[in-house]
Design a protein that fits this description.
Blueprint: H1 16-42, H2 48-56, H3 59-64, H4 78-91, H5 93-110, H6 115-126, E1 131-134, E2 150-153, E3 159-169, E4 176-183, E5 189-194, E6 201-206, E7 214-224, E8 229-232, H7 233-271, E9 274-275, E10 278-279, H8 284-312, H9 321-347, H10 358-364, H11 375-382, H12 386-391, H13 429-433, H14 438-456, H15 461-464, H16 467-490, H17 497-519, H18 526-535, H19 543-554
Parallel strand pairs: 1-4, 2-4
Antiparallel strand pairs: 2-3, 3-7, 4-5, 5-8, 6-7, 9-10
Helix pairs in contact: 1-4, 4-5, 4-7, 5-7, 7-8, 7-9, 8-9, 8-16, 8-17, 8-19, 9-11, 9-16, 11-16, 14-17, 14-18, 16-17, 17-18
The protein binds flavin-adenine dinucleotide (FAD).
Residues 101, 133, 135-136, 141-142, 167-169, 208, 214, 371-374, 376-377, 380, 467 line the site of flavin-adenine dinucleotide (FAD).
Length: 565
């Protein structure tokens, strides 16, 4: 059982403090109870109680201070940060969000050469501070090149910060807001830190209708000295992208947490709902939907866990995480939407009820594919790796499960962001070839046809510039990488082969769907269309095995967890 079950929490940790952080966090929410949780959500109450808990228990200080800047329990350890994010998502996206934007706000600080501000940040974390990441602007969306926030140089060598930011979480209370701008009169980027309570910092309003505070803020000639500067020029640009590299990975964990709680609640309802004299879960299509939801969720978790191994093992020589992180961001979060859709199709009216977790999940799951770069932006990034992935593999040392208590030093020293096309990957074929499972076999054949399309019906120059076409290609490529990470992790976690085969049943159908989509693109050529049709395959039917998966792996989740009232 790899799904989070807060009432039987038994994950492996290298130290007692890590376990304590998770157990205390779970206890905080269970003590709060579902009624209060929902009431606060409904009334959009700022989560002061949670932040007080974080402060008293030094939770962010432990998890978000890199080794060397804080107490002996402090390190930036993706293994435990993943689970913490999952727990927060499990209880509510707003709690996860205040953590997430703190992660982002801390990125440019821990990447900075400014030691004084790093020491100060460690003290602020100990004091219970939260942080913010001021990158986005109202008019520019994904186009950060057009940033208008300025630092205007003054005669004494200092600056005045002038401009506005939009969609900035935590900016109502952040101890420091890492703010991205340009030096006025130049095209030089800069990151500087400012206290959200500074008199020249105007928190204009909350632009969203939620417990979270996602602000529009303005700096009215706020004085900034060299002591407040985190980075300049190329380093500031790299800090922006490298911070998002870390942050975008966490989005997958919010989706996993949300889906896990929603699955428990939905399944519990359906199993105990009797229509026409029998449980709703006796309908074959209901079983199918729950089986698909559960297997999709397991895949999401296995992929995100495996991607963490690569993230933690990354180095200047091994930058494979730059593909795997956007795959987690784009694919795990959109799979989360599918999981909720499946569940909602079954529980129907129940999914609207104000007292349930589900209605919150149904709303919040939509956010994750859209934050920190949309699905499109991430697919556009992912396709850059495709030629190297398929046609230029290289051997790498085997990456084991990374649950050791290391500080993830490289995350704050990722270096230049360029050269993506030159990154080399280990060969994807052996892990597929090693499996004798029937649906892995079908999937492998689909991948072979896709690769053949790339080789023999290669997208032409005009198609390479047709983003709509590339999106469809990127969906298929992403699925291949996703399946590879998943399969790698089934060798590390003891997942029953029958369950893995059932997961691939879903993936084979998804592959077919994406192939049909590519087939229908306006610019697809006859040769490409012919390949697409060959990619449309049916999973191998084994009714007995599917029935066993339902009985042994899905149904037992129905009464496994219920939040304290
Ligand atoms: C609740 C919430 C919280 C947020 N918190 C923060 C925060 O704390 N800090 C912060 O800095 N930002 C934050 N953001 C901003 C968020 O990161 C942006 O919303 C996101 O990057 C997408 O920008 P956009 O919504 O303006 O879309 P736009 O950039 O306007 O995109 C419009 C369309 O163009 C497509 N597109 C754009 N560029 C490309 C490309 N290169 N390739 C392919 N397609 C492309 C997009 O996919 C989209 O379909 C937050 C946003 C929300 C809603």
């Amino acid at each position: 059982m790899i799904l989070l079950d807060p009432k039987h929490h038994d994950r492996k940790y290298a130290d007692e403090r890590s376990r304590e952080v998770m157990q205390k966090t779970i206890a905080f929410f269970e003590r709060k109870g579902k009624r209060r949780l929902k009431e606060d959500d409904r009334e959009r109450v700022w989560y002061a109680d949670f932040l007080e808990f974080v402060k008293t228990e030094r939770i962010f200080a432990t998890l978000l201070t890199p080794a060397g800047y804080g107490g002996p329990d402090c390190r930036w350890d993706t293994w435990r940060n993943c689970e913490f994010a999952e727990i927060l998502g499990f209880y509510g996206l707003a709690y996860w969000y205040t953590w997430q934007v703190s992660v982002l706000g801390l990125g440019p600080i821990w990447m900075s050469q400014n030691q004084a501000i790093k020491q100060r940040t460690a003290r602020l974390l100990e004091a219970g501070g939260i942080f913010a990441f001021g990158l986005s602007e109202r008019a520019h969306g994904a186009d950060v090149y057009s940033t208008e926030m300025q630092l205007v140089p003054q005669a004494d060598g200092s600056y005045l910060a002038r401009g506005e930011k939009y969609y900035i979480g935590n900016a109502n209370q952040a101890a420091l807001v890492s703010t991205f701008g340009k030096i006025a009169g130049t095209q030089d980027y800069v990151f500087f830190a400012i206290d959200s309570q500074h008199e020249k910092f105007e928190c204009i309003r909350n632009v969203v209708n939620s417990q979270s505070y996602v602000s529009n803020f303005a700096l009215h000639d706020a004085p900034i000295s060299e002591a407040d500067i985190l980075s300049k020029g190329k380093q500031a640009w790299n800090a922006a992208l490298n911070t998002v590299n870390i942050g975008k990975y966490n989005l997958g964990w919010a989706s996993i947490g949300i889906c896990t709680h929603a699955l428990y609640e939905a399944l519990h309802h359906a199993v105990h709902r009797n229509l026409y004299g029998r449980a709703v879960t006796e309908f074959p299509h209901v079983r199918q939907l729950f089986t698909d939801a559960t297997t999709r969720l397991l895949a999401m978790k296995l992929v995100a866990l495996r991607a963490a191994d690569y993230l933690r093992s990354a180095s200047p020589e091994d930058r494979r995480y730059l593909l795997y992180n956007p795959v987690v961001k784009m694919k795990v979060t959109t799979q989360g939407e599918d999981v909720i859709d499946h569940l909602w199709d079954v529980i129907a009216a129940k999914g609207f009820e104000r007292d349930g977790y589900f209605e919150m999940a149904a709303r919040d799951i939509r956010a994750l594919p859209k934050l920190e770069g949309t699905v499109h932006v991430n697919i556009a990034l992912i396709v850059k790796f495709m030629p190297s992935f398929f046609f230029n593999p290289q051997s790498h040392p085997e990456i084991p499960r990374r649950d050791d208590p290391a500080n993830d030093d490289f995350l704050f020293d990722q270096g230049p962001t360029k050269g993506l096309g030159q990154i080399r990957f280990h060969d994807y074929l052996p892990v597929f070839a090693a499996s004798a499972l029937p649906n892995v076999g079908v999937f492998r054949e689909q991948v072979a046809v896709f690769r053949e399309l790339l080789e023999k019906a290669t997208p032409g120059d005009s198609q390479a510039n047709d983003i709509d076409f590339l999106m469809a290609v990127g969906e298929i490529f992403t699925l291949v990488v996703y399946a590879q990470l998943l399969l790698e992790n089934t060798a590390i976690y003891p997942i029953e082969p029958e369950l893995v085969n059932q997961i691939f049943d879903v993936l084979v159908r998804d592959f077919s769907r994406h192939a049909v989509e590519l087939h229908g693109k306006p610019t697809s050529t006859p040769a490409q269309m012919e390949h697409c049709l060959r990619m449309v395959r049916k999973p191998v039917v084994d009714r007995d095995a599917t029935a066993r998966v339902w009985k042994q792996h899905v149904l037992p989740l129905a009464d496994r967890y219920e939040m304290n009232p």
